[in-house]
From TrEMBL:
One of its GO terms (molecular function) is galactosyltransferase activity. Keywords: Coiled coil, Glycoprotein, Glycosyltransferase, Golgi apparatus, Membrane, Signal, Signal-anchor, Transferase, Transmembrane, Transmembrane helix. Gene3D superfamilies: Spore Coat Polysaccharide Biosynthesis Protein SpsA, Chain A. Residues 1-19 form the signal peptide. Belongs to the glycosyltransferase 34 family. Its main location: Golgi. InterPro entries: Glyco_trans_34, Nucleotide-diphossugar_trans. This is Uncharacterized protein. It comes from Camellia sinensis (Tea plant). Residues 301-328 form a coiled coil. It is a single-pass type II membrane protein.
Length: 414
């Protein structure tokens, strides 16, 4: 019930999310725009030797707009990769582009922009460790598709802009990576094109509005995804049928308590009503915290920290100082000691992503069901918990997870 109330508040008090890019440094003007998290994931391109062969980019009818379909996208991508073999997937797996964003205007909450920066820093830290690219947007690529609908035009444009990326990974601005070592189990999804956190029984038996969460999802850069997003977006505010879709969604999902059409309800509707067409390619992930509800997680963070410390006290190799680039190897060494940790509420494994649904950190108008400063303290704790995993590679840590300015040097053989 708490999750449903929280989700209702999110959709009735939406935080606008959207579209622009953080960082590609130009020495001449000092302006930053598209940042790659890790140089090893970027192939150098010398435009003086750019292949002369035309690609889909030379087609004057090509559109980045979600309202204009693209055909034969798989063939277009394949041909582009043939001309640019250095961008083909390497031995370390499929290329991933993480996409996130916020509204173009400043936050109403005095602390909102600071929190927005910290949430984004968290995502950059995770990308840097694992060699993923990241694109941050603070513009609306479609003037009518704002709030939770803004992600779809952005993802569509990102697919065209990044043919080298096999996966586009949307992560809401209010979601925190709280396990910096964990990597997506991509082999599990090799036969699927969309991965979303949820529960199949709540979708197909309960027809619940909170059976999935559309704030974090992984979507393959392929024609299937282009077609799916075209249908998904047809329920958005840019269509003349927007109000009708809100009524249809509400009549389909008994626990949806507000009239407007939203992207999450649209996704569930397609799973229910067009199951044969789409569902086989959609993976409903419920085995780990692909995204976890923050109220279920924040109270467990202290116990999780203590459990990891107990392991490291017994295993010298896990206490050794290591370069940040060795983080993935460090995770492999740790994994055998986490076999019995489990996942979910009773787990002592670090939750992968903690999602602060309903906290509205930008406008400060959080769900009234949340007591006092619970959102603020929860975000502080989760962000510092995640930052400690980064800081230890630099020799420091936060001894108090509710005080980001309190910093101590990490003892040798910690």
């Amino acid at each position: 019930m708490a999750l449903m109330v929280c989700a209702l508040w999110f959709f009735t008090h939406p935080l606008s999310t959207s579209t622009k890019s953080p960082k590609h440094v130009s020495a001449s003007d000092g302006v930053t725009s598209t940042q790659y998290c890790n140089p090893r994931s970027r192939a150098a391109v010398d435009l003086r030797h750019d292949p002369a062969n035309p690609t889909f980019y030379d087609d004057p009818t090509l559109s980045y707009s979600i309202e204009k379909p693209i055909e034969n996208w798989d063939e277009k991508r394949r041909e582009w990769l043939l001309h640019h073999p250095s961008f083909a997937p390497g031995s370390d797996g499929d290329r991933i582009l993480l996409v996130t964003g916020s509204q173009p205007s400043p936050c109403k909450n005095p602390r909102g922009d600071h929190l927005m920066l910290r949430f984004f820093k968290n995502k950059v830290d995770y990308c840097r460790i694992h060699g993923y690219d990241v694109f941050y947007s603070n513009t609306f690529l479609h003037p009518n598709m704002r709030s939770y609908w803004a992600k779809l035009p952005l993802i569509r444009a990102a697919m065209v802009a990044h043919p080298e990326a096999e996966w586009i990974w949307w992560v809401d601005s209010d979601a925190v990576f709280t396990d910096m070592e964990f990597k997506l189990p991509l082999k599990r999804y090799r036969d699927h094109n969309l991965v979303v956190h949820g529960w199949a029984h709540l979708i197909y038996e309960e027809k619940s509005w909170v059976s999935v969460n559309a704030g974090v999802f992984l979507i393959r850069n392929c024609q299937w995804s282009m077609d799916f997003m075209q249908v998904w977006a047809s329920m958005g505010p840019q269509t003349p049928d927007f109000e009708k879709w809100g009524q249809i969604q509400r009549s389909t999902l008994p626990d949806k308590m507000f009239p407007g059409s939203d992207d999450q309800s649209g996704l569930i509707y397609l799973l229910l009503k067009e199951r044969e067409k789409w569902a086989d390619k959609i993976y409903i992930e419920g085995e780990y915290y692909f995204q976890g509800y923050w109220l279920d997680i924040v109270g467990t963070i202290d116990n999780v920290t203590e459990s990891y410390v107990r392991i490291e006290k017994k295993v010298h190799e896990l206490r050794r100082r290591r370069a940040e680039k060795e983080t993935e190897g460090y995770a492999v060494v740790r994994e055998p000691y986490l076999k019995n940790a489990g996942y979910g509420k009773d787990s002592w494994r670090r939750p992968f992503i903690t999602h602060f649904t309903g906290c509205q950190h930008c406008n400060g108008d959080h769900n009234p069901a949340y007591a006092g400063d619970s959102c603020r303290f929860g975000m502080e704790k989760a962000l510092n918990f995640a930052n400690n995993q980064i800081l230890r590679k630099y020799g420091f840590f936060h001894p108090n997870l509710l005080n980001p300015t309190d910093l101590s040097e990490l003892p040798f053989d910690f």
